[in-house]
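Hi Y.,

Following your request, here is the sequence exactly as I used it, all 440 residues.
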Amino acid sequence: MIKKTYEKIPIKTMDRIKEILDENEFEEFKNSLDEEPVLGLRVNTLKISVEDFLKIAPFKLEPVPWTKNGFYYDKEERPGKHPYYYAGLYYLQEPSAMLPAEVLAPDKYSSVLDLCAAPGGKSTQLAEMMENQGILFVNDISPKRTMALISNLVRMGVTNTVVCNSKPETMARELIDFFTHILVDAPCSGEGMFRRDPSSIEDLSLYSVEDCQLAQREIIASAFKMMKNDGLLTFSTCTFNKIENEENISWACENFPAQLSECKRIWPHKDKGEGQFASLIKKDSGDDIIRESLIVKPYRNEYLTIFIEETFTEEYQDFFDLSRIIEIKDKLYLLPKGYPLIKKINIIKPGLFLGELKKNRFEPSGDLALAFPLKAFKKRLNFLNRDNEVLSYLKGETIIKDFSEKGWSIFAVDGFPLGWFKKDGNFLKNYFPKNMRRMD
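Below is the corresponding structure, written out as tokens. Let me know if you'd prefer a different format.
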């Protein structure tokens, strides 16, 4: 006889959950663990409005109630294979994971930190709320996960972001009183993942909830050091128990000048989502230290200047603020506004990667192609998503096509940039990034 999912879960874990729910709800919860997990995508409002996306969406979608741009889709759909995915029109995200950023709700004037950021769903959601303005630090202690984080930020066209790979306590020594908003989506015991990822049940034996709680409190302490007075902290987990949730919130309010503003759980038997806990804590007012911003002399390079003038329409040339461009080992980056003086944090990507200086030329990055609307580029070639050339491009293949323009040009699908190409005789030489290509 096949065991039901709840029968595979340690009794101690189920007892902790039973403490939170009444008897009828607990039975509903147990039964919900054997239902199909729900799937979701979030429309990237940096590139398209929700209204316009729904006009072209090739999938059957149903709104997620706790966010304006989140939608459920059926498991028969394959949105991860569609050209719109590669153009960054949406992010595939479990619906309940869309809640923490909604609770934090920064705007374009904010300085924001996503402290445990990989793989980037919440980071890209925060960037959308910020309209790619302000400054957004995203951090993860895993180098491998940080690479996945960068890939998702690039695809979604995020330009206001500094990517870090440091311990929270290291960051806290450098960025005291810097952020108006901080998201701590903390590593946890993962009780909310039982239905979506059955292997999470086996992982329960690796770390106790008490170990998780201790690690989470260390992260919270670092976050409070980095948060401005009157700043907001969202602490969230994908677990159910009070030890990692309510007890941590009580501890934070007792040990720091803070007060709880709101708190919410998502349950698989009550809501159309997996498990999620999210809280909003406000740091009490006081005096912040005054930080010095990094001052950079206007960057000058003739090859970059020529590239900008030949490639971008006049309206978008001002985006390349020369006082915020830095060169690191022949690679050029555009720093977000308000980039601070920092020394000991491991910065993987200090801003928008513009491209690389080669011998007698500038070679643009794939990041740059995805960071702008199609109207920003002087030279472009647009295809319909059903055209064979689109799949060929996404696979990195050379394309046969008449095109009169020379130099760097944009390959687009339905009016949305995918990447660069160059005319080479009767061929279009493909510069779609290797790490983003379709393999099937």
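The two ends are 38 Å apart (CA to CA).

Thanks again,
Q.
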